[in-house]
Amino acid sequence: MNIDPQAIADLVQLNGGRIVGKTRLQKTFYFLEACDLGLGLDFQYYHYGPYSEDLSLAVDDAVALDVLSIDWKAGTNAPYAVFSVTSPNTIASSSDDDGRKKILSVLEKYDSISLELAATADFLSRVGYESDPWSETKIRKSTKATDEKVERAKRLLSDLGNLKAA
Length: 166
Known about the structure:
53% helix
């Protein structure tokens, strides 16, 4: 699938012009797809949950075209990426932007582990684990899926579900 690199930058712009971390980037775009407000990206299960190779390639293209930059920062355990639009500007408005902004505002309230757990459970519920995606999530994410973090991830999915119902 060929995704317009400018569309990636435009969605990062809607998120305040930046997204911190590769996991947050992938999960943000996953939830936009899950809420039918994405770019048509395909996701497969990977180590950190749903992952889109198409998104990764489109980000590389956006960087090569200088509409997005990646700044690597030193973290406590490993370096992390900060994705930023290179020249913030007024983007072409889309009819989906209001819904996208609502989703982004929910996601910004949660840490990246909550996003990872929630996205994993949501993805698993769509691919054969619909009866109990959380048990499978806890198995696959045993070091991250503490009771507290799972409850937070469930709250995230509930918050997103409330947007759909509104």
